[in-house]
Amino acid sequence: MGIVLGDNQYGKAEVRVVRLDRDGERHAVTDLNVSTTLSGDLADTHLTGANDKVLATDTQKNTVFAFARDGIGEIEDFGLRLARHFVATQPSIHRARVAIERFPWARLDVGGVPAAHSFARSAEGTRLAVVHHDGERSWVTGGIRDLTVLNSTDSEFWGFPRDRYTTLAETKDRILATAVAASWRFGRTEDVDWAGAYTTARAALLTAFADTYSYSLQQTLYAMGARVLEHVPEIVEVRLSLPNKHHFLSDLSAFGLDNPDEVYYAADRPYGLIEGTVLRDDAPEPGLAWS
Ligand SMILES: O=c1[nH]c(=O)c2[nH]c(=O)[nH]c2[nH]1
């Protein structure tokens, strides 16, 4: 019986870097959580402890801050710059993955005037990017998480099987709420308007959620993914993870009160978790590119 080293990777997780862009009095905030993951010719450190091929995770962290000094720009580009740097400059490193979350700060409005240097964390969703680079090719996924949305009607759920354990009542009118987590795979990495793709994809998710008359969250999921593909040509595949944030009508009869679909209990767990992929039928193979 022999023992061998299998797949391995290492990096610095969750580097929190905040950059201010100062345009005179007017500032802009870029607030990121960056995780770098490297792999390659790293057997020695595992087998003998020789570290001559190990770019320290501390160095990886420092690189994130140093690159931020030159400006961050779109997170997909920032990730590409970092991933390519690690592979290009370290002979032992053959693959790099850089995952970035961008937390949303909205400029405050003070008496109808946009504030120069005051912001509030907003609920518009956390923007995501994951970049892979293998020395020759790069792959990029974008995405969003924590985009919480609710439809107060135009949602039904009925027609499901009833077995001896089924208690759920059929409904022709319910609240449909979810916290959207989506990631989308780009078919190319050159000449992509990352900011425009993000804005359009986010808007597509929201409008499809709002204007789809829903018979299930699964149906809404498909509509949302398809809408992104219809509006952003560079995106070839969308993966969605949608928790069904159940709202149960509160039974007020013990108090002699009726409840004409007005008072709900928002349960936080358990929750249905509806997940799916919507893609172009001619989407290229993903390569290294996912999550
Ligand atoms: O949209 C829904 N899909 C389900 O699969 C499901 N299951 C459930 O209990 N409620 C719902 N709602």
| Structural classification | alpha+beta
- Which strand order do you get reading across the main beta sheet? 1-2-3-6-7-8-9-12
> Compounds present?
uric acid
Mind telling me the CATH superfamily name of the largest domain?
Urate Oxidase
Q: With helices defined by DSSP (H or I, 4 residues minimum), what is the helix count? A: 5
Seen as an oligomer or otherwise, the chain set is: single chain
Helix content: 10-25%
Mean of all residue-level pLDDT scores: 97
The separation of the N and C termini measures 34 Å
Task: Note the run of SSEs as H and E.
Answer: EEHHHEEEEEEHHEEEE
Organism: Amycolatopsis thermalba
InterPro entries: Uricase (IPR002042)
Catalytic activity: urate + O2 + H2O = 5-hydroxyisourate + H2O2
Keywords: Oxidoreductase, Purine metabolism
Question: What do these coordinates show?
Answer:
This protein is an alpha+beta fold and 291 residues long. The protein is 23% helix and 37% strand. It has 5 helices and 12 strands. It has helices at residues 43-47, 57-69, 75-89, 194-211, 217-231, and strands spanning 15-23, 26-40, 93-103, 105-110, 113-121, 126-133, 138-151, 176-186, 235-244, 247-249, 264-266, 272-279. A hairpin with a 2-residue loop joins β1 (15-23) and β2. α2 (57-69) crosses α3 (75-89) and α4 packs antiparallel against α5. Uric acid is lined by residues 157, 168, 216-218, 244, 272. Uric acid binds next to α5.
